[in-house]
Each structure stands twice: as C-alpha cells, then as structure tokens.
Design goal:
Distance between the termini: 31 Å
Strand order of the largest sheet: 1-2
Structural class: mainly alpha
CATH architecture: Up-down Bundle
CATH topology: Growth Hormone, Chain: A
Number of domains: 1
Length: 477
C-alpha cells in the first residue's frame, strides 16, 4: 500500500522537518490511545456482563482477560507482518480491528460472541502496542526520540482516562452501568461503542502518513526510502542516513526472520532478546493492570460504592497522565535506566504499603472486605503513588526501549517475541487475580506484586543498558 504525501513541503538541504516528524508521530500514538481505551473500558462493564450473560466469577475473569489472548498473538504477528508489509500497513489493519471490536463487544448477546469481539480487539491492541513505538523510533532522531515515544504512554493513559471518564459519565446518566440509555441499550454497551469514534479517526489519519524509511531500506526500496528520509531530515542528511541504515543490516541483506534472534556464532538466543523479554515481563508482574482492569471491583471490595470506585479510576488516570508528562521532560535528559530502577524501588515500597493496608482489612455485616479509616486512606494514597511511580518509569520507558533497543535487522522479530511475552504475562496476571483474591486475599496478591517489583530493581541494574542519545543504527544485539 503506497502512502499519500502527508504534506507537499519537502525539506531542503540539511534541515530536519521536526514539525512533520512530530505530526506523524502523533498520528501513530492514536494507536496507543486506543490501546488504553480498549484496556480500560472493561473496568466499568463487569456488572453489565454478569447481568447480560449470567457469568460466574471464573467466566468474568476470562471475559476480562480474553482480550489479552488476542494481544499476545497480535503483538507477535504484528512484528512479523511489519517486516513483510510495513509498519504503517500493520497500524492500518489494527485500526480496522479496533473499530470492529468496539461495535461487536457492545452488540454481543452471548458470552462467546463477546469474547470473540474482545479477542479481535486484542489483536489490534497487541499490534498497536509494538508498532506505534517502533514506528516513532524509526522516524525520529536520537536527540528527542525518547520524548516522542513517551508520548505513546501519555496516549495510552489518556485512553484509559477517557475510558474511565466515559464509563463514569455513562453509568451516572443511566443510574448505573446496567441501566438503560440511548436507544434503550444498557450503559455498559455504550461504553464499548464509544470507542468506535477514535477508531475511525485513527484509520483516516493513518492513510496519508509515510512508511518507515528503515522498513523501505530492508525491502530494498531505496528510492522510496531516500524520498521519505529527505522529507524527514533534508536531502543532504538523507543520503548519509540511507548509507548508515543499509550498513546496519545483515551482510547478505536477507529478509528479517525469527532465526536472526539466534547468534550464529554461539547458537544461543541473543542476550538483547532476553533483556527485552525481561523488560516486557516485569512490567506486568508488578500488577499494574490489576488496578486498570479491576479497579472498580478492587475499590468496591474495600468499601467504596460503584460510583466512588469509578471516580477513583478517573483520578488515577489523571495522575498517570501527569506522571507521564514528567517523563517526557526527563527521559532524554537523565536516560532510560535511571527512570526504570527509581520506578522499581518506588513501586516496591508503595506496593508493600498497599499490602499492609489490605492485610488489616476485616469483614462487614454483609461479608465484604472493609478497611478502617486510616488504613483506607493509606491504601488509596499508596495505590495512587504506586500508579505515579509506574507511569514515571516502567509504563512509558519499557515501550520506548522495546521500540529502539533492537538492531535494525532484528527489530521486527525482537518486538514480536518481547511483545508476545508482555501480553502473555498480562494475561496471566489478569486471569489469576480473581483466583488469588478468593484464595489468599488482596494482601496476598499484592504481596506477590511487591516481590516482583523488588526483583526488578536488580534486573535493571545488572541487565539493562542505556540507549539514550544512540541512533538506531548503533544498537547492538
């Protein structure tokens, strides 16, 4: 699929077209917004799913986590398909799938149809999660690549925030998530249908942006690559950049493949791949998506009403956006690695405090968990500070690093494996939370996440290497 020129102003000489780079990067981040919206919208629909499908707690857990199955496959195949069809083409496919999923999930009359629609959305989320930061990394220069890629996380959190806010307003207008709203349809259905609007916008805005120049070089479309590079960096710098990209590929210039992840000299998987898998997995083992997916259930479990629980989600989303804005200013100044270990340490401490608060919870007259006034405040404050630490560090930085840390030859394959690991871990954490809640309680579940956060400190210090200020052609495997 050939791209339509995004603008008709070509850069001249050695003048970088920063405005164009920022503009097309912002288009790519809409995929992140939809990633966040699709992940967060489920939060306010639990009661509606129970009523519509008569789902048990186990079935609810699978209905919530079903999207993540699609995410793992979507992330894996997106990396592989992006090496064959292009980064932009895969993003266009994801936009179509986002639209179909939003319409299907809201219209579902059976649990099976709902799960199928959510899996389709999962394919879109998985693809967007790895391709949006990869596309941004491949068009932006090293001096501000981290800042632009961090905007992806702001978009993700903005999507979560908008989903939480939309859920709250729709439930309030209908008198609850199961109440009837427009056209006689329940509010929880409209929560899903709202996603159709940004999905369609994403699809339309993707059509004019150019393909990644690094993909074009890999496909030996040298003239097309040079034209895109000239528009991005100017005609003089474009020629230099083209030579650098070409030199960074394998000596025989073969098409990227999964076997490239194995070092031919040692016969072992390249160390950089294990680091990518570790980053992707630890981001989920700290339990962040329990807060995102089960936030309303979580806060209701410790005594808040449904309305208050949904409002707490809105507050958490706003705090997350603020934290990501701080990261935008820091990531290209102090680097990726310091942000990661500071975040790990902060999350370990705040998760320990949340665990302490939940361990003190008793049961009320109806058998539900109840926290004392001081412990309720501790849980609420510590949980939100934990969210801030996550979004100052692992939230945006993990995606930034996955998009830029792999050499050009193995970027698609590396993203495929690391992305699949991230979403598989996400699925495991999400689907096991209801089981942990029933067996060892909130304190036990959060204790596990606390240990994972503590271990991640040592992983970052020992295994992760800084990528700040390095061009993609300088990345080593």
């Amino acid at each position: 699929m050939n791209s339509i020129p995004f603008d008709h102003t070509a850069t001249a000489g050695n003048t970088e077209n920063t405005r164009l780079i920022i503009l097309i990067s912002c288009v790519a981040t809409i995929g992140g917004f939809l990633f966040g919206f699709d992940s967060g919208v489920i939060n306010g629909t639990i009661d509606g799913l129970k009523q519509a499908f008569n789902s048990t707690s186990t079935e609810i857990g699978f209905e919530v986590a079903s999207m993540l199955l699609g995410c793992a496959f979507g992330a894996f195949f997106a990396g592989r398909l992006a090496d064959r069809w292009g980064r932009r083409s895969v993003l266009i496919i994801s936009a179509v799938l986002f639209l179909l999923s939003a319409l299907g999930a809201g219209s579902a009359t059976t649990s099976a149809f709902f799960v199928a629609a959510r899996i389709v959305g999962g394919f879109a989320v998985g693809a967007a999660s790895v391709m949006s930061p990869a596309y941004i990394a491949e068009v932006a220069s090293a001096r501000y690549r981290g800042r632009l890629a961090t905007v992806q996380q702001i978009a993700i959190i903005s999507g979560l925030f908008c989903a939480f806010l939309s859920n709250y307003l729709l439930a309030k207008a209908a008198g609850g998530s199961t109440g009837a709203l427009w056209l006689g349809q329940a509010a929880w259905r409209w929560m899903f249908w709202m996603q159709a609007i940004p999905s369609l916008l994403f699809l339309l805005l993707l059509l004019p942006i150019p393909e990644s120049p690094r993909f074009l070089v890999v496909k030996k479309r040298t003239a097309d690559a040079l034209a895109v590079l000239a528009r991005l960096y100017g005609s003089v710098q474009a020629k230099t950049k083209l030579v650098e990209i070409d030199a960074s590929l394998s000596a025989d210039h073969h098409r990227p493949r999964l076997s490239d992840l194995i070092n031919k000299e040692t016969g072992k998987i390249r160390p950089i791949v294990w680091v990518g898998i570790g980053l992707a997995t630890f981001q989920q083992l700290v339990g962040i998506n329990v807060v995102f997916y089960y936030g309303a259930v979580l806060w209701q479990a410790v005594g808040f009403s449904e309305s208050d629980a949904l409002l707490i989600n809105v507050m958490s989303g706003a705090l997350s956006i603020g934290a990501c804005l701080v990261t935008v200013f820091l990531i290209d100044r102090i680097g990726r690695k310091p942000l990661l270990w500071i975040g790990s340490l902060g999350m370990a401490v705040t998760l320990a405090l949340v665990t302490l608060a939940f361990a003190s919870a008793g049961l009320d007259a109806t058998g539900k968990l109840a926290l004392s006034g001081s412990m309720g405040v501790l849980a609420l404050v510590a949980a939100n500070v934990y969210v801030i630490f996550f979004n100052l560090s692992w939230g945006p930085v993990m995606w930034v690093m996955l998009g830029e840390m792999f050499p050009n030859q193995i970027r698609g394959s590396g993203l495929a494996v690391a992305g699949a690991a991230q979403w598989t871990s996400n699925f495991a954490i999400t689907v096991t939370f209801p089981v942990l809640l029933a067996s060892i309680g909130l304190a036990g579940a959060y204790g596990i996440y606390t240990v994972a956060a503590a271990i991640s400190v040592f992983f970052v210090l020992r295994k992760v290497h800084e990528t700040r200020g390095r061009e993609l052609e300088q990345m080593e495997g």
